[in-house]
Amino acid sequence: MANQPTQALRPQPVGQTTPDVTAGFVPATAILTRPAGRNTALACELVRLGWPVLECPALEIQTAWVSPTTEIPRLEDFDLVVFVSRAAVSGYLSQNPERGRWPEGVVAACMGPVTAAAIVRAYGTGLTVLHPEGAASQDSEALWPLLLAQKILPQRVLILRGQDGREWLGEKLTNVGAAVTIHQAYQREVAAWPPQLCDALRTLALSGSQPVWLLTSTHGIIALTAKLKELNLIPWFCSSVFVLTHERLKPILAKALGLDAQHLLQVLASPDDTALVLCFAQISQQLNHL
Known about the structure:
- This protein is α/β, with parallel strands linked by helices.
- The chain has two domains: 30-58 and 191-288, Rossmann fold (3-Layer(aba) Sandwich); 62-188, Rossmann fold.
- Helices cover 36% and strands 17% of the residues.
- It is built from ten helices and twelve strands.
């Protein structure tokens, strides 16, 4: 469900109504900050609905380098394998291209349907992936009850992630007796912005427009605000509307900007593209009536 922002913008809960986005002009630019290649479908749909779209990746995702002597964890050596994101799927596949079929008896799990779809594409349509469906939050906390509901709790668990991340799930599994292995499948780096992108952001700021930013991760928020500080664009950024894909990101954004979260226009939405399109549609309807 979408969260109501704190000032004039008050969209309805995501998933309940579909506003007529063709009824008025969209007076804002949608700025998409997911890594390159992750915004294409969403950008096309928003453009179709009348949004000007600017792709502004906060992070670059690369496969984590492993030395030739490093032994990459084998799926068949575990009872449960958790992919924390799509990047974990593609990164592990790049490290281990001779993957074969998914091993029998090993449970695949992740935090949401987008990553689940990536796992199925990689390992075959016959694979069932354990993940939260329709949860208010697609995260470790939503996955945990599903793991507890399994007939047998896993004893050997592999978590595939970036160079760092939340330890909550690993600690929970350890507390119930599982041996947890954490493997770095990908590397996050602050994205390099070409001069054309920096110029486009400055132009938007000078125009006085109120953009709508899509923010999807803690690391992305930290990288993005650092880049905008270099461009002296933080005051403009603070006056934007923010679409966040998790409640946990609200204090992260506020801390990065040195502001109280109550002073920011923030809306919550599920991270899948369908929900995000609906959320942006609701925002456009509200902005058009301000």
